[in-house]
TrEMBL record:
PROSITE patterns: RHODANESE_3
Domain Rhodanese: 477-567
Name recorded for this polypeptide: NADPH-dependent 2,4-dienoyl-CoA reductase, sulfur reductase
Named cofactor requirement(s): FAD
Molecular function GO labels: oxidoreductase activity
Similarity comment: Belongs to the class-III pyridine nucleotide-disulfide oxidoreductase family.
Keyword Isomerase: no
InterPro entries: FAD-bd_OxRdtase, FAD/NAD-bd_sf, FAD/NAD-binding_dom, FAD/NAD-linked_Rdtase_dimer_sf, Pyr_nucl-diS_OxRdtase_dimer, Rhodanese-like_dom, Rhodanese-like_dom_sf
Alphabetical UniProt keywords: FAD, Flavoprotein, Oxidoreductase, Redox-active center
Length: 568
C-alpha cells in the first residue's frame, strides 16, 4: 500500500515538501489542503504586485517556465492525488491518524494520513484596536489581501494611506504605494526607529531619511489608538499624538505563528507560539512534520527561540521534510536571520544580531561601522556602501552584520558572505581574511568586509576610539570639545569657513608637526571622509602622548547620508 501524506498549507513549505516526496517516491499518495483559494505563490513578491512592478497576480504563482501553479498544475504535472482549496483544517486526530477539515459548504470531511505536514503559516497580530473592522483596513497575509489592495489603488480610490508598522512589509508597502501610485503615504511605528530588532539605529536612520526623500512620512514612537470612518470605511487613524487622514490602512505589525492546531492536537508548542521541531523538522510526534512560519527555531547565534517568516527558509525546509517522509535523513540548521529589503533606489540588509540584540542575548559586545566604495576607487562606476559589524569583545567572535547601500546586489552579496560563516562562530580574523573574488569593476583589492573586520579588530584592541553619528551630533550641539578635520584643505576649507572657530583643519599628514593646535584639556573629535585618516591621526596623536581623542565612525560621507546638521 502506498504511503499517504497529507499536507496542511499550500504556499511555500507545503508544496515544496509534497513535490519532494513525490519525486523520491512517486507512489506516495499526496493530499494538500489549504484554507485559501490561491496556493503556491511568492508571498515576498506581494509588495511588487501591489506596486505594479509585477503586473498580474498569476505571475506570483508562475514557474520560471511560465506555468501557473494551480490545482491542475499540481495534479497533472506534480502528480498530487488531491488538492483541496478553500478548506480549513479544524483538528488533527493523532490516535486515528486523521485530519478533519471543513469546506465553504460547512461540510466536514476526514483525510487519513501516514505522514502529516503542518505548514499552517502565520497571521498578522491582532492588536484589538478600536475600529479595526472598518472597510479598507487590510493586512498583507495572503494573495487575496494583496488583490483587494491592488484593486483599491488601481481604481483611484486611495489618495492617502497609513501603514502601521515599520518592519519588512510596512516599508515595502510604503514604497509600493508612494513610488508607483503617488499615494501620500505615512508610516506609524511604536518603536523609536524603523526595522526595530533588525538593524541598529544608525542604519535605520539612514534608511528612513532615504525614504523621506522619496516622500514617505514617518511617525516614530507613536501608538495607534483607533480607526474612525463614516459609512463603514476608514477615514482617520488616531494615534496618541495626532490624527492622520487615510483612505487605506495596512496593518504590518508583525506576525503570530499558527500553532493552535498543533497545540490542540497535543503537539509541543514553544514560548513564541510556534511548533517545536527537531533538526529533521519532526514535531513531538515523529509522524508529523512542520515548517515555515508556524514553527519555532533557535537562532544560530543567540540560541534564543524565534519565528522566521522567510520564503527562502520555508522552501529549504520543505525539501528536508519531503526527503525525510520518503525515508531519507535530511536535517536543517539553525537560522541566522538573514534579510534584505529594497527601499526605492536603496536597500537595507543584515544577518545575525544587532548590538542591542547581542546585549539582550547576554554578549558583552560592541559594534563598529564604516563606509567604503563598493568597487575600486579608480573605477568610473561606483557608490558608497555602509556596513556595521557586531562582535563579542572578549572572544572577538562576529555576531552580526548590517548594511545600507544602493539597490544593486553589491551590498547584499557582502552580507550573504558573512551570513554563511555565522553558524561556524567566526572571529574577526576569519572575516578579515575572508576571500572575495576581486576585479576593479566589482570590488576593492581590500574588500569593505575585510576592512570592516580590521576596524573592529582595532576597536577591540583599543587602537581605535570612535563614536557613532548620534554621539557626534550631541557633541556638535553642546559638547565642550574641539573638532579637527583631517582631510586636505580643499575638502576642509568650506567647513572652516562655514563654522569659523568651531571647525579646524589639520590634515593628517601635518598633525604631528602642529601639536600646539591640539588641546590636551578637551575632547578632540577627529573627522575625515570615511574614517581612515582620522584613525591614522588618532594613532599619530597617541604616539605623541595625546589620548583625549575620538574618531567619527564612517566620517563625513556617513554624516552626509545620515543627515547631520554639519553637512546640511
Amino acid at each position: 500500500m502506498s504511503r499517504r501524506v497529507v499536507v496542511i498549507g499550500g504556499v511555500a513549505l507545503g508544496t515544496k515538501a509534497a513535490c519532494r516526496v513525490k519525486r523520491i517516491d512517486p507512489t506516495t499518495h499526496v493530499t494538500l489542503i489549504d484554507k485559501d483559494d490561491y496556493i503556491s505563490y511568492g508571498g515576498c513578491g506581494i509588495p511588487y504586485y501591489v506596486s505594479g512592478d509585477v503586473a498580474d497576480h498569476t505571475a506570483l504563482q508562475s514557474t520560471a517556465y511560465h506555468m501557473v501553479r494551480n490545482e491542475e498544475f499540481f495534479k497533472t504535472i506534480k502528480g498530487f492525488e488531491a488538492l483541496v482549496t478553500g478548506t480549513l483544517v479544524t483538528r488533527i486526530d493523532r490516535e486515528a491518524k486523521v485530519v478533519w477539515a471543513k469546506g465553504k459548504d460547512g461540510v466536514e470531511k476526514s483525510y487519513p494520513y501516514d505522514k502529516l505536514v503542518i505548514g499552517a503559516g502565520s497571521r498578522t497580530r491582532d492588536l484589538g484596536i478600536s475600529g479595526q473592522d472598518l472597510a479598507n483596513i487590510h493586512a498583507v497575509g495572503n494573495l487575496e489581501d494583496a488583490m483587494e489592495i491592488k484593486k483599491l489603488v488601481a481604481a483611484g480610490q486611495v489618495e492617502k494611506a497609513v501603514i502601521v508598522g515599520a518592519g519588512f512589509i510596512g516599508l515595502e508597502m510604503a514604497e509600493a504605494l508612494a513610488d508607483m501610485w503617488g499615494i501620500e503615504t505615512s508610516v506609524v511605528e511604536i518603536g523609536d526607529q524603523i526595522m526595530p530588532g533588525f538593524v541598529g539605529p544608525q542604519m535605520a536612520h539612514m534608511a528612513q531619511r532615504s525614504m523621506e526623500e522619496n516622500e514617505v512620512n514617518f511617525y516614530l514612537g507613536e501608538t495607534v489608538k483607533g480607526f474612525e470612518g463614516d459609512e463603514g470605511a476608514v477615514q482617520r487613524v488616531i494615534t496618541d499624538k495626532r490624527t492622520l487622514e487615510a483612505d487605506l490602512v495596512i496593518m504590518a505589525v508583525g506576525i503570530q505563528p499558527n500553532g493552535e492546531l498543533a497545540r490542540e492536537a497535543g503537539l509541543e508548542v514553544g514560548p513564541t507560539g510556534g511548533i517545536v521541531v527537531n533538526e529533521r523538522l519532526e514535531t513531538s510526534d515523529p509522524d508529523i512534520y512542520a515548517g515555515g512560519d508556524c514553527i519555532e527555531l533557535n537562532h544560530a547565534v543567540s540560541g534564543k527561540p524565534g519565528v522566521y517568516p522567510l520564503g527562502s527558509l520555508a522552501n529549504r525546509q520543505g525539501r528536508v521534510i519531503g526527503t525525510n517522509m520518503a525515508g531519507g535523513s535530511a536535517t536543517t540548521e539553525a537560522p541566522v536571520g538573514s534579510f534584505v529589503v529594497k527601499l526605492f533606489d536603496k536597500s537595507l540588509a543584515g544577518s545575525g544580531l544587532t548590538l542591542k540584540g547581542a546585549e539582550a542575548a547576554g554578549f558583552d559586545a560592541i559594534s563598529v561601522s564604516m563606509c567604503q566604495l563598493d568597487r575600486a576607487h579608480f573605477y568610473p562606476e561606483k557608490e558608497l556602501m555602509f556596513l556595521e559589524l557586531v562582535v563579542e569583545k572578549a572572544t572577538k567572535r562576529v555576531l552580526g552584520i548590517q548594511g545600507f547601500a544602493g539597490s544593486g546586489d553589491a551590498m547584499v552579496g557582502r552580507i550573504n558572505a558573512v551570513a554563511a560563516t555565522l553558524k561556524y562562530k567566526p572571529t574577526i580574523l576569519d572575516i578579515s581574511n575572508l576571500e572575495f573574488a576581486y576585479s576593479p569593476p566589482f570590488s576593492s583589492a581590500m574588500d569593505i568586509v575585510n576592512s570592516l573586520a580590521n576596524v573592529a579588530d582595532n576597536a577591540v584592541d583599543g587602537l581605535l576610539h570612535s563614536i557613532p553619528l548620534a554621539t557626534f551630533e550631541g557633541l556638535w550641539e553642546e559638547g565642550d570639545c574641539v573638532f579637527i578635520d583631517c582631510r586636505e584643505r580643499p575638502d576642509s576649507t568650506p567647513f572652516c569657513e562655514k563654522f569659523p572657530g568651531k571647525w579646524n583643519s589639520i590634515p593628517q599628514g601635518e598633525i604631528k608637526h602642529r601639536l600646539d593646535e591640539v588641546p590636551k584639556d578637551k575632547l578632540v573629535v577627529l573627522v575625515c571622509n570615511t574614517g581612515v585618516r582620522s584613525f591614522e591621526a588618532q594613532i599619530n596623536l597617541r604616539e605623541m602622548g595625546i589620548t583625549n581623542t575620538v574618531s567619527v565612525q564612517g566620517g563625513m560621507a556617513t554624516l552626509k547620508t545620515w543627515g547631520s546638521k554639519v553637512t546640511q
